[in-house]
Amino acid sequence: MPADDLRDSTIRLMTRKRRIALAVPAMILVYLAYVAVAFDLGGLAQRARLDNAAILLADAVSHKVHVTRDNRRETLQVSVEGSNRAVFSESQIPDWVQAQGDGARIDLGAGHVVTYDGPRVVYDIPGYGPVTLDTSDGVSVQVPGGTMPDFINASPTRATITTDQGRVTATASRTETLRYFWGWEMFFFDLSSPFSGMNAGQVLGAIIGGAPLVEGVSNLSLALSEFWTNDIWQHGAVAWAIFETVLMAFLGTFGAAFVALPLAFLAAQNFTPSRWLRFAVRRVFDFVRGVDALIFTIILSRAFGPGPLTGALAILLTDTGSFGKLFSEALENVDDKPIEGIRSTGANAVQRYRFGVIPQVLPVLLSQMLYFLESNTRSATIIGAITGGGIGLLLTQAIQTTQDWEKVTYYILLVIVMVIAMDSLSGWLRRKLIRGA
After folding, report:
1. Alpha helices, DSSP H only, in 124-234?
2. Strand 174-182, strand 112-117: pairing
């Protein structure tokens, strides 16, 4: 090539590279601008409520004691998280709540005091003064100075006062004061338990050398039974839900492998000469793999009703397509020499596959199945929320109540522990079954 042509070619190549180098950042900036407009990032920043986020985080690591007055029935109730299963009896009411007929004096600490006097509520806030709520005819608010502060949200039908010490909400039918405490209340024992009200040292002392709290039952057995049957946290039901979630993942994963393996022989080129048969089987794999397990979950739940089995079938259908593709590719890469050696002994087709093919692909198949088992353990949580089974159902119910955020945190932590355990078990099985270590 002449020197001039070579120089011109080099110049053109350098110019093209320079244009590409300039075009790529420009395309990225255009894409980011499109994302900002399409997702309305400016509006998202305006709609963000950091105060709600702070309340959510507080609810995740703490619990609330509700002091509720029914303004229609003129009755008073003190409970944890407003649950009817966690109502304090008269002898169990905390000392910071002093019941006075159908009224009460509630000490929120740091000088904050709420007083129920019939339909009238007075919240004495240090440094600000008393705020009076009247629910006898709608909801009216009286504040010192007449100017409504930011920590009070009021309308003709509802008023809410939010401070660092607690929250007061009043409507015509109900007045409620919430006080926050760190920790998960009654995580071990509910209010009906003989261990209720004991601290950790007292419980340990009762178990080690204390007199039996229930005649004929050791305190250790009683403590385990009370923990397992805790009516608030329901540890027994949660453990069963975790088992259902793992069972969905296990049945779906290994059921799919059982179905996909024989079909993979029909999709492998070196085992099925018929081009049309291979094409048909591979398209079936593409179809069931292309439809997400959540879609199959919705369809199957209409056909078979909700339940863990529906979730397992949804996982089975989706993974059959994935396993079929992976298994067929593994079969197409097997070495023909062991197969020919077994054929020379007079073995039939099933024996050739059993002793000449399966030992070659088994490590790959097991590795893929165990990896999918890990992944499906996470997926089974979401699928369970739709089909009504496993820990996913409990998680959804806790979120929908908008009150039990500490239970949401508890269930999420259990899901994380479950995934970590399945990952460790899968790794151990891979080492034992595949590497022989």
Report:
1. 200-209, 219-228
2. unpaired
Name, in order, each residue with C-beta under 8 angstroms of 113's C-beta and a sequence gap of 6 or more: 105, 106, 107, 123, 124
Instruction: Say whether 339 sits in a helix, a strand or coil.
Output: helix
Instruction: Tell me if 184 sits within 8 A of 130, measured CB to CB.
Output: no
pLDDT tens-digit map of 295-351: 888 888 888 888 888 889 999 999 999 999 998 888 888 877 777 787 777 777 777
For residue 13, count other CB atoms closer than 10 A to its CB: 10
b/e per residue, 40-54, with b = 16+ CB within 10 A?
Answer: eeeeeeeeeeeeeee
CA 179/CA 67 separation, integer angstroms: 8
Determine the distance from the C-alpha atom of residue 94 to the mean position of all C-alpha atoms in its chain, rounded to a whole number: 33
CB-side neighbour CA atoms (13 Å) of 44: 7
Reported as a pLDDT band with limits 50, 70 and 90, residue 238 is: very high
Map tokens 């997926």 to a residue. 379
Closest CA to 101 of 84, 80, 117: 117
> Tell me, what amino acid is at 135?
T
DSSP notation for 406-424: HHHHHHHHHHHHHHHHHHH
User: What tokens appear for 202 in the block?
Assistant: 């007292």
Q: Helix, strand or coil for residue 40?
A: coil
Give the C-alpha separation, 102 to 106, whole Å. 13
Report the C-alpha gap between 361 and 332 in whole angstroms.
10
If you write DSSP's letter for every residue of 249-307 in order, what string do you get? HHHHHHHHHHHHHHHHHHH-TTT---HHHHHHHHHHHHHHHHS-HHHHHHHHHHHH-SS
